[in-house]
Design a protein that fits this description.
62% helix; 4-stranded mixed sheet; alpha+beta; 8 helices
């Protein structure tokens, strides 16, 4: 997986620079998400690497499935990936592109996991605190996990803020074993 991300990074950065230059971030985001979803489909994945299906033909198949949802530059990008035998990295390219886009827009995605449902006020206060801490606008996605016992766990990028009761109990267990 790390290798695919490493290979995908220059493609994502090049497309991102093109999208910025042409002021087409949302359009490229949609095109990449569509192409990535198609490339991740199990039927397409079965064709990737199949010696009976040349890379060019696989690229053509992707273009046919995408139809008119790609611009000429989007189509050229798919052809480029196909010619280089890189269709399989489309999901990683899309993911890396989204990270660059979020950074550009100054918005961070936060995955908030709570032991219990949060009220709108609690969520608003937590997001406001996170925005102060990270000095950026925060887009929160909330999920419920009763196994946390109490509290919340917040994931923003590579950073994890775990204020759950479960984490505190695990830390206490480690301290007692020492």
């Amino acid at each position: 997986m790390a290798e695919a991300r490493t290979i995908a990074r220059p493609y994502a950065e090049a497309v991102f620079k093109l999208a910025i230059a042409k002021d087409e971030l949302p359009a490229w985001s949609e095109m990449l998400q569509l192409a990535a979803a198609i490339a991740a489909d199990e039927r397409i994945r079965a064709l990737i690497g199949n010696p009976k299906v040349p890379s060019r033909r696989l690229g053509g198949l992707l273009l046919d499935i995408c139809g008119d949802k790609l611009t000429d530059e989007g189509r050229n990008f798919i052809v480029l990936l196909a010619e280089n035998g890189r269709i399989e990295i489309l999901p990683e390219v899309s993911e890396l592109f989204e990270q660059l886009k979020i950074r550009q827009e100054g918005v961070l995605d936060a995955k908030i996991t709570s032991a219990f449902a949060m009220s709108d006020t609690q969520l608003r206060d937590l997001v406001a605190d996170l925005e102060v801490k990270f000095k950026r606008k925060i887009e929160a996605k909330v999920s419920i996990d009763p196994e946390l016992i109490g509290g919340v766990k917040v994931e923003i990028g590579d950073e994890v803020l775990d204020a759950s009761v479960r984490a505190k109990l695990e830390a206490m267990a480690v301290a007692l074993k020492s």
